[in-house]
């Protein structure tokens, strides 16, 4: 089979690159192993949340200039970031991921523990605030689904009370939700979202909320709505008498799953091919170029393309792997930026910057991958598989995924 | 000052390991007024950092016959009195091509002398009954080894001690011994949570503080020749073996693989370490390398099994009084009457021994205590079953049949009847790897001296499974809040719990353990914003 472009990895960066290239009229195939790190999403996208010293960033476009030369943003070129950020926002909205925000100025999202965390774009309907230490609410009610442990209301309410907000925690349930949790392992955000995808069930939840809620400027609810589109998020707003805002939960993230579904849907609409549940396992290189790749499910067939993009993620997505001796890239054994000795991969305190977080595929300034010291002219790397930044410290993971994907897509389309 | 401390106790026991817990139970059963104090949590020392092996004694049969016969007797007793903590798996002693097969005959003979049933089986039979065993084995002997959960065993002893009137204080550290006219009359205590000082009075102190016992007697100017011996172990993410696998040779490093609950554990190394390091043991890369290399010889599938974590404990070894060099170290039970030995009345030290001979150690210490106090009461701990094992398992209400109930029963034994299962919330799962419900967490908080997530882990296995606390730690912290803990304290506790888990993962952080560590960091630091220092 022959494509213009084959992308390995169907997460945020792979889908973003795929959509952009398909929009440019290319025949694109994405090989996707399955779960992506979007399943751990907060409902917000980050450009740069913290600077290298760990201080919250107010103006990400300005702060980006301080990053080191190996940071993927530096490779893109700082002057291009603002434009790519706009393109990313447009792409998300086109896919139906309705987000709001401004790359010039971060706002704050809420964490499931109620902490305020800098963010660039946040899903509409989710609770946000403009500043870290001011809140517009005086009186808040936190409403949880009974027995749903992945929304730790105690922490959220303690945080709000500290800010002088009058806060009450209540819970509700319906027969349908009760039924959905007959098995105690099933009380997960995504399972609840499936129940609430039914309009009748949603109506009953709204009735419960209207019945239990008292005096409050806003009702805070766990983001357990909108499994495959954002309709139910809006619908519940119209059904509930008081203003509501959603807060992210512990994983799996409904907003992340929804984002993945919406991006895949757009990619398919554009004529892209998605090989779901398949895994690239190797490729044939010739004269400094990648000719074809093979996958687990198509052992007798090679997939050919002019250009290839590796968007396979970091360790947790198995885009990078490690063993007793070394860190490696498992599909092509590309060159990886890493420290030699295992003892240097980690630091003693879990909350210190862990060196392994910055490990990843080595690329040139155009994100061409490097194998055995040689640049591979038609193989690019994007997203979390890249080396050079610590997404947990800097809060730049989703931004790097979106922007490097857009940048590489542009490089490819401008090439011909 | 706390009100319990106004009582006059017959005995104050120092140390909340299995020896202290067992001694508290024995003393309480014999009618003594007992206070047990522990500076940290129960099982924080060697009790919680070993194989969880219920030795048959076979390991010691050749080299230390006395220990071997102690082991087999206690083995049989614990199967009766602590049935809910024991998994009767049996064990194999295998001979590999590199081992001397002639040792097998010596071994079997020595087992016979010690009263340990040891049957030689063919390598084929060994491979059939334990498919994970190294297929190259050239000989095998089957013995009555088993696995035992030291956490639940300690809890059960504590509960029974409490039921018979003992007072129990965790996080209370002994800061001094009150000595008057050559006789100990009490202890000075510091509450390690609040920093508050207090004093408690007694007629007799039993030092059951394991390796820390060295410091306890030191407070009275008494010298004890203790040698901290560090032992490192690895926990694997699956239970690859169903029988204990040992090497049939003289005891050496890393030659025991024990199936424990959902995991298996290989160990140990053995190194003398400086006394100053005992509160912060570090696992070295060399130890990990050795454990993997030797572990794979017992069960080759360990080579491809994820390592969950590494941990180390300190054996409280004591050298003979006339041997300051420590060459003639005893692994047997040591029960010291300091009145006789050092001229200080009212102080007993019980140490040495093994986790699984705790009951016998407790009996010896309590016998001595009773003699000193002029109390005539017989030891009953060998016949009275522990809470969790005593009685019958309750009738399970049909509507709550679940594997989680079975898992809880596996941990708490018959006490599972005290775990609330009636409300939906109580049946929600906090920890999916180990199937721990909200009800069980609440039970542990109310009944089992739980102050933080670390305590909770030891009482319920929350966070002990394959994910090492990925979501359950946060959920459990939420439940702790609901039962009265302040949110800020719970968050600080959550941070230290994550760090404690990382401490064990870091020495083995490659492959899926590294993947899991990254996922945990992404969730706790990225998504939840639980960074160090941030309020």
From TrEMBL, chain A:
The enzyme's first-digit EC class, named in words, is: oxidoreductase
From what superkingdom does this record's organism come?
Bacteria
Give the signal peptide as a residue range, or say none if absent: none
Q: Which keywords does the record carry?
A: Flavoprotein, FMN, Oxidoreductase
Q: Recorded E.C. number(s)? A: 1.1.5.3
Q: Where are the transmembrane segments?
A: none
- One GO term of the cellular component aspect? glycerol-3-phosphate dehydrogenase (FAD) complex
| UniProt cross-references to InterPro entries, sorted A to Z | FAD-dep_OxRdtase_2_FAD-bd, FAD/NAD-bd_sf, G3P_DH_GlpB_su
User: Which SUPFAM superfamilies does the entry link to?
Assistant: FAD/NAD(P)-binding domain
Q: Which residues form the FAD-dependent oxidoreductase 2 FAD-binding domain?
A: 4-400
What is an example of a GO molecular function annotated in this UniProt entry? glycerol-3-phosphate dehydrogenase (quinone) activity
Q: Which Pfam families match?
A: FAD_binding_2
NCBIfam families, A to Z: glycerol3P_GlpB, PRK05329.1-2, PRK05329.1-3
Put simply, this protein is called: Glycerol-3-phosphate dehydrogenase, anaerobic, B subunit
Source organism of this protein record: Prevotella multiformis DSM 16608
- Organism ancestry: Bacteria, Pseudomonadati, Bacteroidota, Bacteroidia, Bacteroidales
Automatic annotation (TrEMBL), chain B:
Is Oxidoreductase among the key words of this record?
yes
Give all residue intervals belonging to the BFD-like [2Fe-2S]-binding domain. 429-475
State its cofactor.
Answer: FMN; FAD
Coiled-coil intervals: none
Biochemical pathway = Polyol metabolism; glycerol degradation via glycerol kinase pathway; glycerone phosphate from sn-glycerol 3-phosphate (anaerobic route): step 1/1
**Annotated keywords:** Cell membrane, FAD, Flavoprotein, Membrane, Oxidoreductase
Q: What EC identifiers does the entry list?
A: 1.1.5.3
* Pfam families per record: DAO (PF01266), Fer2_BFD (PF04324)
Catalysed reactions, semicolon-separated: a quinone + sn-glycerol 3-phosphate = dihydroxyacetone phosphate + a quinol
An example Gene Ontology molecular-function term: glycerol-3-phosphate dehydrogenase (quinone) activity
The residues covered by the FAD dependent oxidoreductase domain are 10-358
Q: Which Gene3D superfamilies match?
A: BFD-like [2Fe-2S]-binding domain, FAD/NAD(P)-binding domain
UniProt-listed NCBIfam families: glycerol3P_GlpA, PRK11101.1
Task: Specify the protein name.
Answer: Glycerol-3-phosphate dehydrogenase
Which species is this UniProt entry from? Prevotella multiformis DSM 16608
This chain is encoded by the gene named glpA
């Amino acid at each position: 089979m022959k494509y213009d472009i084959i992308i390995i990895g169907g997460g945020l960066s792979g889908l973003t690159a795929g959509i952009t290239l398909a929009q440019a009229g290319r025949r694109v195939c994405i090989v996707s192993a399955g779960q992506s790190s979007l399943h751990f999403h907060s409902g917000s996208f980050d450009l740069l949340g913290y600077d290298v010293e760990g201080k919250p960033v107010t103006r990400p476009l300005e702060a980006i200039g301080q990053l080191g030369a190996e940071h993927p943003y530096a490779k893109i070129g700082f002057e291009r970031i603002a434009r790519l950020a706009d393109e990313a926002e447009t792409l998300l909205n086109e896919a139906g991921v309705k987000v709001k925000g401004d790359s010039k100025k971060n706002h704050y999202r809420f964490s499931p523990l109620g902490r305020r965390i800098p963010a660039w774009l946040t899903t509409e309907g989710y609770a946000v605030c403009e500043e870290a230490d001011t809140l517009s609410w005086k009186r808040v009610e936190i409403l949880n689904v009974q027995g749903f442990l992945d929304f730790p209301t105690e922490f959220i309410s303690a945080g709000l009370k500290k800010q002088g907000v009058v806060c009450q925690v209540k819970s509700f349930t319906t027969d349908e939700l009760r039924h959905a949790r007959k098995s105690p392992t099933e009380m997960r955000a995504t399972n609840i979202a499936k129940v609430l995808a039914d309009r009748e069930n949603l109506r009953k939840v709204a009735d419960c909320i209207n019945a239990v809620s008292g005096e409050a400027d806003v009702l805070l609810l766990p983001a357990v709505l909108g499994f495959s589109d954002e309709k139910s998020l809006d619908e519940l707003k119209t059904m509930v008498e008081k203003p509501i805002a959603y807060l992210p939960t512990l994983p799996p993230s409904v907003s992340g799953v929804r984002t993945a579904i919406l991006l895949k849907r757009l990619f398919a609409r554009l004529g892209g091919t998605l090989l779901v549940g398949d895994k690239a396992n190797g490729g044939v290189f010739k004269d400094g170029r990648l000719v074809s790749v093979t996958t687990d499910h198509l052992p007798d067939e090679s997939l050919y393309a002019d250009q290839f993009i590796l968007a396979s993620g970091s360790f947790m997505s198995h885009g990078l792997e490690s063993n007793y001796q070394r860190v490696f890239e498992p599909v092509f054994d590309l060159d990886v930026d890493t420290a030699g000795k295992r003892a240097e991969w980690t630091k003693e305190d879990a909350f210190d910057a862990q060196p392994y977080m910055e490990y990843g595929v080595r690329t040139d300034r155009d994100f061409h991958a490097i194998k055995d010291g040689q640049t591979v002219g038609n193989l690019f790397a994007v997203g979390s598989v890249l080396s050079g930044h610590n997404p947990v410290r800097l809060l730049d993971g989703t931004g790097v995924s979106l922007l490097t994907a857009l940048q590489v897509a542009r490089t490819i389309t401008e090439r011909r | 000052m706390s009100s319990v401390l106004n009582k006059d106790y017959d005995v104050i026991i120092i140390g909340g390991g299995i020896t202290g817990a067992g001694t508290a139970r024995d003393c309480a059963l014999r009618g003594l007024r007992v206070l047990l104090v522990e500076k940290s949590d129960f099982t924080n020392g060697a009790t919680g950092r070993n194989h969880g092996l219920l030795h048959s004694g076979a390991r010691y049969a050749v080299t230390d016959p006395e220990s071997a016969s102690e082991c087999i007797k206690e083995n049989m007793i614990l199967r009766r009195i602590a049935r809910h903590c024991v998994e009767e798996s049996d064990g194999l002693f295998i001979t590999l091509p590199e081992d001397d097969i002639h040792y097998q005959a010596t071994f079997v003979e020595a087992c016979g002398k010690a009263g340990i049933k040891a049957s030689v089986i063919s390598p084929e039979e060994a491979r059939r009954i334990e498919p994970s065993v190294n297929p190259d084995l050239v000989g095998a002997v089957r013995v009555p080894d088993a696995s035992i959960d030291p956490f639940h065993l300690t809890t059960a002893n504590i509960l029974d001690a409490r039921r018979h009137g003992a007072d129990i204080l965790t996080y209370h550290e002994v800061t001094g011994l009150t000595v008057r006219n050559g006789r100990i009359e009490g202890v000075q205590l510091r509450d390690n949570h609040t920093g508050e000082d207090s004093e408690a009075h007694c007629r007799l102190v039993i030092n059951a503080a394991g390796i820390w016992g060295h410091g306890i007697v030191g407070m009275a100017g008494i010298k004890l020749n203790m040698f901290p011996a560090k032992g490192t172990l690895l926990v694997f993410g699956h239970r690859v073996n169903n029988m204990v696998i040992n090497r049939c040779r003289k005891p050496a490093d890393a030659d025991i693989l024990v199936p424990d609950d959902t995991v298996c554990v290989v160990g140990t190394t053995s190194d003398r370490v400086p006394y100053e390091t005992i509160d912060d043991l570090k696992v070295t890369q060399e130890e990990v390398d050795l454990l993997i290399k030797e572990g794979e010889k017992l069960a080759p599938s360990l080579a491809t099994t994820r390592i969950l974590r590494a941990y180390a404990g300190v054996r409280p070894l004591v050298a003979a009084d006339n041997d300051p060099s420590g060459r003639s170290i005893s692994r047997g039970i040591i029960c010291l009457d300091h009145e006789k030995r050092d001229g200080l009345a009212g102080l007993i030290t019980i140490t040495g021994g093994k986790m699984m001979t705790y009951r016998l150690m407790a009996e010896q210490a309590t016998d001595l205590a009773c003699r000193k106090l002029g109390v005539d009461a017989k030891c009953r701990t060998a016949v009275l079953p522990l809470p969790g094992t005593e009685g019958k398992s309750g009738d399970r209400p049909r509507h709550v049949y679940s594997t989680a109930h079975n898992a809880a029963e596996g941990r708490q034994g018959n006490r599972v009847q005290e775990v609330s299962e009636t409300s939906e919330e109580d049946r929600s799962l906090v920890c999916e790897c180990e199937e721990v419900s909200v009800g069980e967490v609440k039970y542990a908080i109310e009944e089992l001296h739980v102050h933080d997530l670390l305590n909770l882990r030891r009482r319920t296995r929350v966070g002990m499974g394959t994910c090492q606390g990925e979501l359950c730690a946060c959920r459990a912290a939420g439940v702790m809040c609901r039962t009265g803990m302040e949110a800020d304290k719970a968050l600080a506790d959550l941070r230290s719990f994550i760090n404690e888990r990382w401490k064990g993962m870091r020495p083995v952080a490659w492959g899926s353990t590294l993947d899991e560590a990254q996922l945990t960091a992404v969730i706790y630091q990225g998504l939840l914003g639980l960074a160090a220092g941030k309020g």
